[in-house]
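Because showing beats explaining, we think one record worth quoting, sequence and backbone structure tokens together, and here it is:
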Amino acid sequence: MKDFKIIDDKALEQLKDRRWLHEFNYKAGLEQLRAESMPETLEFIKELTATEDSLKNWVVQQQRKYLADKFIPSDERARVIQSYRDLLDRLEKPVAGLRSLMNSVDVIPDGDSITINWETTEAKQKEKSTIVIDGEKFNEYYSVFYDLIKAHQKLVAFEKSKQYFPESTSLKFHELVAGLGYDYNTRADVTPERFAEIHKSKLAKKK
């Protein structure tokens, strides 16, 4: 069998489950920018969210610009400095949320604002959750494993034909089939697809 791909459904669901958080960060971040009469363009948000220090650096830069090259009484200077500190405090959590958003989903321009492109985001989430199974490893492992399955099936069939007490059932064979007991116990078989899913960490092709 050639190499093939499977979706890690658990990993994909974990990514999808965070959608509510991304939508919350999107709404809270934009609302705070609007409350401060600040731009909400993609370019500006990228500037604020580039690193953990980007917001602080931007606020300090704005404060210095405001105070530069002019005489300002000391009490007014102190008031201005405190005002920028307060601004930073109000922005820190919402901008951290926007930074998480920018690092997690596809954000695109929407006029003078931004929006989330869920179509491309979900495509990337699916790609991120895709595992390439090494066909050679799979063939070798599944072949040996399935020899055991076939042997057990033969034993069950023999016991039934002879009306013997089902020793194979009393041995609880399905409990010995790691991760696949339910499948075998209910279907008396294990498909290649299910085997690959359960053993994906062992069978994943090395990059």
Summary: The first strand starts at residue 4 and ends at 7. Strands lie at 4-7, 107-110, 113-116, 130-133.
